[in-house]
Amino acid sequence: MPTAELIAPAPTAALAPADFLHDYRLGWESRHASLAGRKEVFMGKAKFGIFGDGKELPQLAMARAFQNGDFRAGYYRDQTFMVAIGELTWQQYFAQLYANPDVEAEPSTAGRAMNGHFGTRLLDDEGLFKPQTATKNSSADISPTAAQMPRLVGLAYASKLYRLNPALHPFSDFSVNGNEVAFGTIGNASTSEGMFFEALNAAGVLQIPLLVSVWDDHYGISVPAKYHTTKQSISAMMAGLQREGEGEPGFEIFEVKGWDYPALVDAYQRAAAVCRTQHVPVLFHVTELTQPQGHSTSGSHERYKPKSRLLWEEKHDCLLKMRNWLLAEGHATADELDALEKDAATTVKRARTAAWKAFVDPIKDERDATVALLDRLVKATGTEHALAETVNRLRTNPAPIRADSVRTLRQALRQVRGLRHPGRRAVQQYLEQLQGENADRYNANLFSQSAEAVGNIDEVPVAYADGAPQVDGREVLQACFTANFERDPRIFAIGEDVGQIGDVNQAFAGLQEKFGELRVTDTGIRECTIVGQGIGAALRGLRPITEIQYLDYLLYAVQILSDDLACLQYRTKGGQKAPLIVRTRGHRLEGIWHSGSPMGLLLTTLRGIHVCVPRDMTRAAGFYNTLLRSDEPAVVVECLNGYRLKETMPANVGEFTLPLGRPEVLRAGTDVTIVTYGSMCRVVLEAAAQLAAEGISAEVIDVQTLLPFDTEHLIADSLRKTGRVLFADEDVPGGASAFMLQHVIDEQNGYQLLDAAPRCLSAQAHRPAYSSDGDYFSKPNVEDVFDAAYALLSEADPERFPDIY
């Protein structure tokens, strides 16, 4: 018997028949919503549907154990649960199915995610955290299988920190003594993902209040459990997690049939009690569930389920089983249950109708306004003109979308581009209005809009005392982290080797001893859930620094960073934020897996996260000071070969801030601009000195951050002087160098300022070879930079600068 069986009494005795009937009706409302949702997709009113039918009862039972302050990191079939906790209405459910971009109508994602992706609005209208302890909370869902699990670890870990760190007790808007449980949900097939196993292992090691429910309907789309799970049972497979007794490390494991309502309610109460009071993680395996409509609207489960399975599912439908239980226990008559089911269908139908009207009416209004404006142009050009046909197609469109109005306006303006008529300007103004409104609907909120956004952090210049000591670069970071930890008790750091030894490069040396193990904490080798641990904790108001030992190892966590953190503000339209700092180090060191600079990979996958590339530890400290005062996520890539180089210790090491997006001119010049960052700055500066000896004046610019990139167009200002540009970096060809070139040549109109074709100097197409020779021949060196810059001048003045080779 699991230890948790001894924790809480059976709660069904405290529930009255009215509670049972309430849940039964809500279960049927959810079922009708699933059935109606599928029909809406097949009618063309929505593009895709994935529904929670067959999972109603366990979600109702879970909702009864879910308390204010708790958090969910879930699965896209949790509609019943979200309605049961009062954080979703059926009208909002259908608004999401139709992709209504109005955040009031669809508060989870403002129509940006497909249906079944739920989340509560954790931020107020100013972009600041609302109190979380008086509400039931859900982190914003994502589709990638098992990707909710890393974040779930962090949501639960925050409760541990809030309970055990007295300095956090005043933050009562985020926790009440760490009593909050993080509830996770996942399908049985998704438990095959490595993230699931990594997250469970982390939860067991950390002993945190994480309760993960596995909805087991035996299939993963068309693939049955025998191909997914050893022993075809995740609870049997993970039995070794079961703790041996109270106070011992490990999990509590429950296995309950998904159609057994009273057993589900009892078990969830017991599971949540042990999780909440003792901070013991729980694996809750819900078996014998069904999926009446199959996986989604993309196909039919009759294609792959045998008739015997379909017949079994029909007999074991959880709502049918609950009906039989209610009748057998005398809690209701058949007529009463029939009436509840009928009322449930009516409720859902009304919600669906209201949601569709709220979605389509504004679109039709835009269409009508567009047609009215364009009719004036038709009168001016004549009905025989192609414009009349264009307008009539929009007028007679029975199911317009917003793009139809904008597309027609753009085509109309193209057709009358030479016409002088007052109606043409009116059409152009309306198009500009719609383009602005749609930019807000579909493109806004990639980054924070609050007063704590990076761009709103006051710049504080670095200051140096007379006779300031020269120290190792790592000591600057050590002093910076110390000052920030003293300033803000919400800051903590986790990662491999950051604790006892103070990280492999010693920037955290002594901090665990000074601030304690809760603030500076070693972890196992698990980059994905290190980052997830930070995301979840940041969602709950804490300020984590998660360290990834080498930039090469960040690849383990790129999926979570991209699919979860980078798009969090965007996919909630400013409803949630997680100001996580990912600290790592890269560029030059030794060999294939310890000296990578995959910046292009980060730049294309992490839009929504700032990417800082400081050339030394003083610059890194300035970025940390800025980021720890802001509410936006960032990756800071420190230079691997810079920790032992000497730097001057700033007098205000914990206070000075660096703005993001502003390059720095390291060396003024007039002949050629060389744009670079990170460890390449030292290489380029040495090359610039050699170029100067040959009469070539190179202006060296350190971009400092790649996201954002040169927001003030300072590089273009340099090109006005030099007329030539070389982009140099350690990424592969076409990586960050191409990114920088595009920004300067395209966005900054730098092509107009050039007297020669722009050039890029990158590393070789392969990863760097081991040894100093491997580094020299794999990555750009001083001679490479010299030759590339010299060639630009030789092209213009071959007599003065004859070919070298």
The tally of domains stands at 4
Largest sheet: 7 strands, mixed
Q: What fraction, in percent, of the residue positions are helical?
A: 40-55%
Distance between the termini: 81 Å
Task: Give the beta-strand count.
Answer: 22
Give the full name of the CATH homologous superfamily of the largest domain.
Thiamin diphosphate (ThDP)-binding fold, Pyr/PP domains
Query: Structural class from helices and strands?
Result: alpha/beta
CATH topology heading of the largest domain: Rossmann fold
The percentage of residues in β strands lies in: 5-15%
Q: In oligomeric terms, what are we looking at?
A: single chain
In order across it, which strands form the biggest sheet? 11-10-12-13-15-14-20
Shape: globular
Detailed description of the structure:
The chain is an alpha/beta fold and 805 residues long. The protein folds into 4 domains: 17-231 and 245-332, 3-Layer(aba) Sandwich (Rossmann fold); 362-443; 454-648, Rossmann fold (3-Layer(aba) Sandwich), CATH 3.40.50; 665-796, Rossmann fold, CATH 3.40.50. It is built from 26 helices and 22 strands. The strands form 5 sheets. It has a 7-stranded mixed beta sheet, sandwiched between helices. α2 runs parallel beside α8, α11 (334-381) packs antiparallel against α12 and α22 crosses α26 (782-796). GO terms for molecular function: oxidoreductase activity, acting on the aldehyde or oxo group of donors, disulfide as acceptor. It comes from Hymenobacter coccineus. InterPro entries: DH_E1, THDP-binding, Transketo_C/PFOR_II, Transketolase-like_Pyr-bd, Transketolase_C. Keywords: Oxidoreductase, Thiamine pyrophosphate. Its cofactor is thiamine diphosphate.
